[in-house]
Each structure stands twice: as structure tokens, then as C-alpha cells.
């Protein structure tokens, strides 16, 4: 795996005003090494993160949630926020925050590539979700072109 390519793609994507800056579609993003076909003893690790600090125990709980495959019947936690999946698609799913303090709400887009999971967090509702999806898809497509 060419980690330098992934590092460059992440930096280019983050610095293109996709994450964290005022007016960005995303408030935070995390890129996780993840092989769904690998043995469970292989630990997923955080490859990159911006705007959020996930800890190993939170990451493990999230990956366990994904491996169980009960996306629409369980909730998951990222940081201090609990999320409920609202739509599931072939390589991605969307979820809304259950314990938000934001008037317009908060959500997350989770996209899976061959060896990564991109978690993209945003504030807002439907319009914000569309912008978040477009921003997340840009990085996921770049990784998929290299079969990552």
C-alpha cells in the first residue's frame, strides 16, 4: 500500500476547504484503515483525522458496529455523539446524531473503499448532507482509483 499517496491525497483534500474551515461542508473527518475480509484480530487504525480526536476504544466500538452489519437496528458512538443510521447504500451509509445541541442537527457520512473507511461529520440538515456527501465522495473516489 502506498501510504505516501494516501497522505498526499488526504492533505490535498483537507486543504481544499473540505474540512474544518468556515464554510466547509465538513466539520471533521477520519480515515480508518479497514479490511472487512481480514481476521478480527487485525486491528483497524486511524490513518488520518481532522477536526476530531477519536481514541482507540471509540474506533474499536465503531468498527465492531460495522462488522456486525446491523446498521439499521443499532446505534453507534463517535466522540460524545450517538448516531442512528438513516440510509444504507452499497458502499456508504448516512446517519443522524441523536444527542445534538445544534438546532439544524448533525450527521455523518460513512464511505467504504477497498481498504479504508472515511467518516465525514457535518452540521445541518438535507442541504448540508448533500454537500458533505459530495466532499466525502471526492476523497473516496481518489482512493478508489488507486484501489485503496
UniProtKB/TrEMBL annotation:
One Pfam family from the record: Profilin
Entries under SUPFAM superfamilies matching the protein: Profilin (actin-binding protein)
Molecular function per GO: actin binding
Descriptive protein name: Profilin
Amino acid at each position: 500500500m502506498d501510504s505516501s499517496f494516501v497522505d498526499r491525497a488526504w492533505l490535498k483534500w483537507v486543504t481544499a476547504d473540505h474540512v474544518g474551515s468556515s464554510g466547509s461542508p465538513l466539520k471533521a473527518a477520519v480515515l480508518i484503515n479497514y479490511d472487512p475480509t481480514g481476521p478480527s484480530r487485525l486491528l483497524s487504525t486511524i490513518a488520518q483525522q481532522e477536526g476530531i480526536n477519536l481514541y482507540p476504544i471509540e474506533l474499536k466500538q465503531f468498527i465492531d458496529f460495522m462488522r456486525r452489519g446491523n446498521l439499521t437496528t443499532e446505534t453507534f458512538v463517535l466522540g460524545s455523539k450517538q448516531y442512528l443510521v438513516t440510509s444504507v447504500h452499497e458502499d456508504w451509509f448516512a446517519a443522524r446524531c441523536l444527542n445534538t445541541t445544534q438546532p439544524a442537527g448533525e450527521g455523518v457520512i460513512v464511505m467504504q473503499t477497498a481498504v479504508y473507511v472515511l467518516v465525514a461529520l457535518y452540521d445541518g440538515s438535507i442541504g448540508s448532507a448533500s454537500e458533505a456527501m459530495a466532499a466525502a465522495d471526492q476523497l473516496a473516489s481518489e482512493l478508489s482509483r488507486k484501489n485503496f
